[in-house]
Amino acid sequence: MVVPLGYLIVRAAEADAATLVEMLWRRRTWVLLRNTLGLTGGVVALSALVALPLAWLTVRTDLPARRLVTLLAVTPLAIPGYVMAHALLGLGGTNGMAAAVGITMQRPSGFWGATIALTLYAYPYVFLNVRASLLTLDPGLEESARSLGYSPRSVFARVVLPMLVPGLIAGSLIVALYALGDFGAVALMRFEVFSFAIYTQYAGAFDRVYASALALVLVLLAVGPLILETRLLGSVRFARTGSGVARRQRVTRLAAMKPVAILFVAVVIAASVGLPTVSLLYWMGLRSPWGELPRLIAYFGNSVAASAPAALLAVVAAIPLAYLRVRYPGKRSILAERTAYLGYAIPPLALALGMVFFSLRVVPFLYQTLALLVVAYAMNFLALALGPIRSQLLLAPRRLEEAARSLGRSPIAAFVTAILPVLQRGILASLTLVFVMAMKELPIAFLLAPTGFTTLSVAVFSRTSEAMFAEAAPYAAAIVVFSALFVGLMLRYEGQEINEAS
Amino acid sequence: MRHLEVRGLTKRFAADSPPAVDDAAFTLDPSEILGIVGPSGCGKTTTLRMIAGFERPDSGEILLDDRSIVDLPPEKRRIGLVFQDYALFPNRSVLRNVLFALHRTPRHDRLSRADELIAMVGLSRERDRMPQELSGGQQQRVALARALAAEPQLLLLDEPFSNLDAALRDSTRRDIRALLKRARVSTILVTHDQDEALSFCDTVAVMHDGRIEQTGSPESVYLQPRTSFVAQFLGRANLLSGRATGDAADTDLGRIAIATPATGDVTLSLRPEHLTLRAVDGDAPDGCTEEQLACVGEIVSREFRGHDITYRVRFRETDFLVHTDYSIDHAPGTRVYLIPRRPAVVL
After folding, report:
1. How many domains in chain A?
2. Is residue A285 part of a domain?
């Protein structure tokens, strides 16, 4: 993890300090910074605005079909940002979906286009966190406040809302990391943020020093919120303090507000799930996807060829890390684990760029090979692989190894015979999770894939960026259908990791 | 004047199930402590929540100082509530938990009033701690201080001692009873622990399957239970059936004096400590003595408990429980006379 970061620094340091300062002091950097922070802030704020009411409505009110709404609210996890952008872009313009039904609208682009695309894709992280806070909120607190003379309204403001803050922050942090690191949606929306500029510098202008300098600034931006969250939540505890049974939650009757609530839910779901679904179907109806089938299968195979070894590598690396962290918790194992999380938090484009420089300088024969892509994926998703394995390991008592040792096995034999079988389910979950995430991944594939090696995500991106919406649709549909099969698994482990890290 | 009066309180959670609370009625005098005791699921917590305003009764009346409060929302009732798990705000310090309840107090008095209450529950040194840094007993006292801060007209305690370990429970119970008496707050305590109800409360109401079976002083409900449930719930009891003639009854255990005159078939309750044992001379015949005042049984088991001994004595296929003090010491297998020490209670 440190290697690619190191090479970013090495590369940036090739310029002397004065040049570097001058480079970063350009007006363009400030524009990028403003745009990046604006986008991140916009996505975080809009996600909260969507997710807070949605979580409250599904947990605490008599909204109809709450289970279905909950399920639909997390479905966008299966829809990558660049597919969201595809759906939004395909809506407007003279050949767009809206034009087909007689509505003239421009293609969304720039700040609002990117903000909306990323919000529709990322708000489930806030939704899930706030929902979890709401579900664990002790109703006794609200009842206490009522019996101490507070009206329902002030109870909500003074008791419920403050308790949702940690969930909101944790969810927003993940959303912020996605917004900072996203490449596909911003590039398609042509919004000048750091990751987009890094790419154009690297690919177009070939100014690699400037690209690395920008990537380093982006890394700093991503690490900032992580530190901030630790500070904010370091000392305050929000879980129930009592040890008794939790009472059941009270349900608020929506009454006259019910139509408004249903309208809100309908708009959110229609935009986040309905729009991409309808859009993909529309474009595929417009231009039969069957002609693309052979190529689709080939690209799918490419994606698998990169993702499957990456999943295996990530899991092989995660097992000893998780084992050391659980059995020998100490400064070193914590540091190792933190480093893994860093790989997840670093914007993938910066990670990929670091890998490019590293391979060119140290192992040039690896540059533009599948192996390098696999390694980069494994680094990026190592943190995700840790989660399921670690939770499974926590359930396996130390006595198991001790029993094996006392029966005459060496430490390694004891681990292999006594612990590894117990980890089976966790390993399987980790493998699947990394595999699915890698299948959707765009920026790393874009930068590191060997020449002529096209993955599904790259296929969607390159076609959409040239407004070939119908041509992109089958590939996008393949990704969405494939990831949708694993939403349940993603729900359980993705996101949760970052919270634990901080 | 009655401070609180509850009449015909009934609550059903589902139309086809028996009522959770069925026609409950009781009264409370100013600064009285009433205990509602019963097994879990008997409706005691539902009763409490209806008084607090978190559940709406299907029928019945709740009068506080002769004013009906059934239609008032919880925040308008001025009824304090201490939860089983205390429900302290985990993101607020002790002081700020108490201050939260003082929003009706004039601003410049709040801090001194909060400090006063915190001192009253003996937590001045913990004033700025967070709830999770306190022991269970301390958290409980914070909850009490917070509830008292709102100057409730009535305080409700829902199993407040059940989360404390046994060693702490007795002393906390004593302290809190003294505190409530000093503050002259009328209190209703809900508990499943009969010892707690008997030692903490001025009046005890025994609840079973949604109905209040008996209300009275701890002594009267313990010594004169009116139903077999009350007799068995408030401690162990030997239940006997028999035929009463005036102030005695003929039972399986011979002729036993009864506490209230009756005639006809009766069920009697005899507490284990109201029976005693006497050694039998080697050749006394089985059965009861001629005057029917003592019967010969065989000791089946003996549990030594330090301060007393519990015997199980078998007489004509029935086992009787007997608590005696340490001085009456017989080995299992011994034949002994079973002798009632007090008149049995007619249920």
Report:
1. 1
2. yes
- CA dist B122 and B142 (Å) reads 9
Q: A241, A248, A253: which to substitute to probe chain B, counting the most B Cβ within 10 Å?
A: A241
Q: Does some domain include residue A250?
A: no
Residue B346 pairs in a beta bridge with B268
Counting beta carbons within 10 angstroms of the beta carbon of residue A486, is it exposed (0 to 12), middle (13 to 18) or buried (19 or more)? middle
* Interface contact B91, partner A, CB < 8 A: yes
Residue B281 has pLDDT above 70, yes or no: yes
* Assigned token pair, B284: 């006394």
CATH architecture classification, B4-231 = 3-Layer(aba) Sandwich (3.40)
Residues of chain B with CATH 3.40.50.300: 4-231
CB-based contact B85 A159, cutoff 8 Å: no
Write the pLDDT tens digit of every residue in B162-203: 888 887 888 888 989 998 999 899 999 999 999 999 999 999
A378 token code pair: 């494994």
Chain A contact for B73 (CB, 8 A cutoff): yes
Supply B192's token pair: 């499943």
Domain that holds residue A34: 2-239+255-501
Give me the CATH number covering residue A208: 1.10.3720.10
* pLDDT band (50, 70, 90) for residue A243: very low
Asked if the Cβ–Cβ distance from A148 to B100 is below 8 Å, we say: yes
- The beta-carbon neighbor of A241 closest among B52, B90, B147 is B90
- Beta strands across the sheet bearing B211-216: B79-82, B154-158, B187-191, B33-37, B203-208, B211-216
**Is pLDDT of A424 > 90?**
no
pLDDT band (50, 70, 90) for residue A239: very low
Report pLDDT for A214: 84
The vertex-A129 CA angle with A123 and A130, nearest 5°, equals 90
Level-2 CATH architecture, domain B236-346: Beta Barrel (2.40)
* pLDDT tens sequence across A301-352: 999 999 999 999 999 999 988 888 888 877 887 777 777 877 888 888 888 8
Is any Cβ of chain A less than 8 angstroms from the Cβ of B272? no
Question: Does A220 touch chain B if contact means CB atoms closer than 8 Å?
Answer: no
The pLDDT of residue A123 = 93
Tell me the residue length of chain A: 502
Chain-chain contact of B52 with A147 (C-beta, under 8 angstroms): yes
Domain limits, CATH 2.40.50.140, in chain B: 236-346
Residue A462 domain flag = yes
Residue B157: is its pLDDT beyond 90? yes
Q: Do A240 and B90 touch (CB under 8 A)?
A: yes
Average pLDDT over residues A160-165: 89
- Please list every residue in chain B whose beta carbon sits closer than 8 Å to the beta carbon of residue A232: none
Q: Does B104 touch chain A (CB under 8 A)?
A: yes
Q: Which candidate from A148, A241, A243 shows the least CB-CB separation from B88?
A: A241
| Residue written as token pair 């201080």 | B145
Per-residue pLDDT, A44: 95
CA-wise closest residue to A218 among A35, A346, A356, A38: A346
Closest CA in chain A for residue B86: A242
Q: Report chain A residues whose CB lies below 8 A from the CB of B104.
A: 149
Q: Is A328 helix (H, G, I), strand (E, B) or coil?
A: coil
Closest CA to A127 of A182, A247, A46: A46
pLDDT, tens digit, 9 for 90 and up, residues A433-446 = 889 889 999 999 98
